[in-house]
Each structure stands twice: as C-alpha cells, then as structure tokens.
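Progress report, Aim 2. The chain analyzed during this reporting quarter is listed below.
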Amino acid sequence: MPQSFSNRSGRDLVSRFRRSLSALVGAEKGRGQVMLVAFSGGPDSTALLHLLLETSNESGLKVAAAHLDHGLRGEEAERDLRAAGQAAKEAGVPFYWEKADCRETARRDSLSIEAAARLVRYAFLARLKKKIGARWVATGHNADDQAEAVLLNLLRGSGPRGLSGIHPVRSDGVVRPLLPFWRSEIMEYLNGRGLTWVEDSSNDDQDFTRNRLRHDLIPKLEKEYNPSVKAALARTADILRQEEDYWSTCLNGLKHDLSWEALDSRVSLALEPLAGLDRAPARRLIREAVLAARGNTLALTLDHVDEVLDYAASGGRGGLDLPGGVRAWRDGDRLLIGRFDQAEPPEFEYELNAPGLTLIPELGLRLTAAVHDRPGELDLRNMGPARAALDLDSLTMPLRARTVRPGDRFRPLGMKHMKKLQDFFVDEKVPASQRPHVPLVLDQRGIVWVGGLRPSEDARLRASSTRALVLSLE
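Predicted structure tokens for the chain:
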C-alpha cells in the first residue's frame, strides 16, 4: 500500500466518510438497501464508488453505478463509457448507462447546455432509481464544488436559496457524502489507493462559466483577497442552508393559510391572503409553486417572480408565461401556476343507459344509473356530490350527458327560479378552468343534474315519489 494511505491521515479520511454517510442515510437504515452512484468515471465519482465499497460492511449498503452520455463529446464520451463500464466491472458492481441529447433539451426548454445537462442527468438517475428499486442516488459533489456553486450563484444575483449551495441530502433521495471533502483530499485518496480515472476535457473548456470561475476567478481571489475564500464560501452555504430549513417550516404554515392545492402539475392558491403577505415570503411561495408544477426552477428569475406577484395583485386578465412551459393565471379568487393546457375543452354528448353504465372518455368518467323502487329508504344526506337521486317518474326520457354550453340555465335544488349556469358556477366558486369539465345530465326538457354539484329542483325526490333514479360519477 502506498505510504500516503498507510498512515493516520488515510484512516481518518475513510472514518470521516463513514460518519458523513451515516449522517445522511442513518446508521441502520441503509442495511440491505441499494445506493445508485452517479458514475462518470472521473476522480470524484471514482472515489465515491470505492469509498462506498470500502465502508459497505459497516453501512450494509449495496452499490450500483449509473453512467450518462450527455451526447456532447463524441468519441471522448464513448471512451468514458467504456472506461466507466470496465471500472464498475472490476469493482464488482452492477452498471447501467444511457445516452441523451442535451442540445435538443437546451433548445426545447431555452436552457444553457450546462443547465440542460443537469436536468437530463437527474431525470435519468430518478428513472433508474425507481426502475431498480434503489433507496438513494449518490453524487460526487465535494467542498470545492460547494464553494464554486455559491460564488456562481452570487454572481448571478441569486437569493438565499441559491446561496445555500449544494444540499447534502434532497427530498428525492439524492445524497452527497463527499460534500465535506476538498478536491485535494479526494485526489490523495485516489493516488493512495492506486485507483485510475478518466479526465473530462470539457472541464478545461473556458467557454463554460464554471470552468472560468474554477481556473481563473477563485485562484485570483485566493491570491489577492482571502487565501481561505473557498472555506468562507462553503461556510456561507452551511449558514444559509440552516436558514432555508427554517423557512421551509414557515412556508408549510403559509401554504395552509393560502389554501394551497397541488394537483396534476398545477398549483392553486388564494389571491387575497397572498396579497397580504410581505414580499419575501410571497416570493418564496411563487418559487415553490413553480417548483411543484415544473419539477425545477431553472431560468426562473427574480423578475419573473415579481411579475407574477404584480399580476396577482393587479386584477388583470390573461396570464403570464414563465420559463419551461409554465404559465400563471387568475381564476376567480385564486392564482393558478402550472403547465397550461392549450387544448380545446372537451365536447361530448351521449344518450344515457338508464339503468346501466355510460362511459364519458373525454372526462375519464363512468356514469352509472340505478333504479330504486323504495326511494324513501335512500340516505340523501350522505350521498355526497358525486351522486344524485332523482324522481324517475318526473323525468322525460331518454336522458343525455353533455358538456356545458353558452346560455345553459336550470333551477338548482331548493330554488324557486331559473338560474344561469354561469352564475351558478360563480356562486359555487367553480374555477373557470374546471367548468368545461363538469358533465351535465338532461332529460327532454332540460338540465336535471349538474354532475358533482347539484340536481335540479324540477327532478328532486318528493315524499310522493315511487321510484328513484340514482346517478353516480366515478
């Protein structure tokens, strides 16, 4: 064994790694679980792979390697793939790989190549993690990467979240056990163990901002301003990450106050309490909404966030387009943020099988109709909005189910007069975006049930009713 790793410093590094890993995954939780390593074959991921294997007896982890060809470096990328596969084979771990087209992603989503590569890489790791049943994904980010990330985000004008840098553990199971280690320590480990790795020539390409920062700006700051500037930047990340954790707790309470709803890549929140918030928490909530709708906040700037808040407060119509195909728009007393569906509202009309089953594929619904000869035994109070009991003998058959049309009117249950369906939706606080998706049931005279909301007074069950038709939406 080389001298550098026969001494105390070598043993200390492995011991420190063991403690770092345990802090991220738990001393006992890892036993029998799979950790997927993002394995480029470079120095950081090579050290990570072997440190995980070296400590696997204590951690109980099973290790697998994942390699992504970003489609950017041609023959060199193919060389790296072969080298990574061979290294994984020699280490005795399963190896998975995939090739992507990051340039196409960058073009489609209006991203830099660096941002697109990161987006594609994490999507690949997430898919593979789910496919093989891994518990965690480990990446080789180190303390130098942390310092560079903080400085880069500072130059971009990021807020506290950006300046909190690279987080040791993410909610999606991504962990960074090498984050406490400097690049020099990692190289010492590799040389001490006699391990080999591949060098990515793009790491020296000065066209990439991060490379210029690493090779030019940070050395200049160390020489002319602060020899420990990287440690200072990493310390800043630690401080702000703790503050971000505190803010996350606060935001959960604010979400409750704003009646926050997240469904199908779309977030909805109440406008009035949002307008009452200070700018700082309001900005964080908008960023959280975009993150929930899109999965990331790439290319979302402070100007975008402030435009959304100004739009929400203005009472204006229309909406705002945000990066990544996300849109913000008002819907009644709520603000919606999500991937905006430009498709035309569904159009359908079906004759109901009564009794029987009618499918409404445009809405993904099943509408069943059942006849009850003892309507007095029905528990009308506990039927719920997805069911309605109508007086069968008062209906003029056949029944139809169709979409909402301009000018629709009906007499809601409990009312004496006809009401425009548009006004009924406003009173019931049904968002405009959802109204085209409400199914209507009609007999030959008009609407007898606004599906999921209320039946018509004209078709209600009475004490004298002898037969009921019970409609159910699933």
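The two ends are 68 Å apart (CA to CA). Residues 91 and 143 are 25 Å apart (CA to CA). These observations will guide the mutagenesis work planned for the next reporting period.
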